[in-house]
């Protein structure tokens, strides 16, 4: 049983020492073995649309550019209204369902809040 503290970021028990540092192999976080670990809460990431308005889950947005759908001949046209969006982490930070196309991910830089 390890007497090393758990990782302050991901709470993994698999930490190890490397000189004066403690390292978490799961998330890669490094912190000093001397003194208490200070956990800094993650700032809530604010996702903004193309004009700088903050987006929230459930918002309605409008597409501002024709978007070709990879692997398909379909196109999401300018002015398409998308209701009830869900914000996610990742490259495509909006999950939504578009009428006539189905579920897909959008980048917030191509939408404007209504």
TrEMBL record:
Stretches assigned to the Protein YjdM N-terminal domain: 3-32
Domain spans labelled Protein YjdM C-terminal: 47-114
TM segment ranges: none
Family annotation (InterPro entries): YjdM, YjdM_C, YjdM_N
One of the Pfam families matching this protein, by short name: YjdM
Family: Belongs to the YjdM family.
Protein name: Protein PhnA
Organism of provenance: Pelomonas aquatica
Phylogenetic classification of the source organism: Bacteria, Pseudomonadati, Pseudomonadota, Betaproteobacteria, Burkholderiales
